[in-house]
Amino acid sequence: MRLLNIVGARPQFIKHSVMQKQFQHYGIEEILVHTGQHCDDMMSSVFFETLQINPPHYHLKSVSLGAMLEALKKELADCDFDAVLVYGDTTSTLAGALYAKERKKLLVHIEAGLRSYDMQMPEEINRVLTDRIADFLFAPTEIALNNLKLEGFWGDRGKGCAYWGGDVMEDAFRFYSKSAICPDGLETSGDFVVCTMHRQSNVDDRQRLEFLLQGLGELQEQIVLPLHPRTLHKIQTFDLTIPTNCVMLPPQGYFEMLWLLQNAKAVITDSGGLQKEAFFAGKPCLVLRDCSEWMELVQKQASILLGNETLPQAYQRMLGLQVAPLDLYGGGKSVDRILSTLKANIR
């Protein structure tokens, strides 16, 4: 089986690293495309190096959906493959999905069925459209699988169907957890909270970003704040001040983020992936959003949504959470579950 794998963003590099390690065992020949969606060193190349991902066969150096599609058509015109595999809900995901259908190839979607029901989020649009045209839809949770069933997809019938795959991110967390390293130059005194924010809805609006930064400043906590390039740019553009209780860091590699998660008191984030990683690390999480595609974490009292509360109010509520070690995401066996299904159904 020749499998065209399309990645472009940090979470996809992490997921693909553990998938790639099992390709040979399942007789899969890999063709790897890096769209270039995340292209600076700390958001891209450092992940290929530290996670020992094979170099991409194609590096498109594209950021927009249109540019990705044009580059895929041009660079891969003579490339043959049996199926296209995409991860998650980024622009790279949708570009890969549309390219698969243009080439009349099978489409495999890892992390299918997630729904926040907020169509103002680009990620929601990407995941819904990708699911609509996918041939193999691997849901990471029972809630996601049920979403797909309600939308007309049914499992265990081969092409065009939904399956419970589990979450590849748990496989990665378990595999790499002992490789965690302290970020260079980090100086903390006692307990700390790790915080990330990068979503358009939080950082592109000056009033919203100022509200969140002021809220962090009102917490009686030391905040370790790895800043996404987008967030730093907006803080500078809006001439905002980072609170004095925040320790600002540049974007961190995966092993550094694992260390921060393992050693933090709690997590504050608007990242979908970090919500789960906080759970894997047994840490309570405050989600800086009104909704989440990972509602099982809210239901199981592992995380809470900010909603209309102030950040200090929500943070105090979050401190009351008790994160139980539940098996919600497949127990670290998702890669084998997914690849064995593909091997049985794609000839």
UniProtKB/TrEMBL annotation:
Mind telling me which NCBIfam families this protein's record contains?
Answer: wecB (TIGR00236)
Keywords (A to Z) from UniProt = Isomerase
What organism does this protein naturally occur in? Helicobacter enhydrae
Q: Which family does it belong to?
A: Belongs to the UDP-N-acetylglucosamine 2-epimerase family.
This chain's protein is named UDP-N-acetylglucosamine 2-epimerase
Domain (UDP-N-acetylglucosamine 2-epimerase) ranges: 26-343
What GO terms are given for molecular function? isomerase activity
* Domain of life (superkingdom): Bacteria
Q: Which Pfam families match?
A: Epimerase_2
PANTHER family named in the record: UDP-N-ACETYLGLUCOSAMINE 2-EPIMERASE
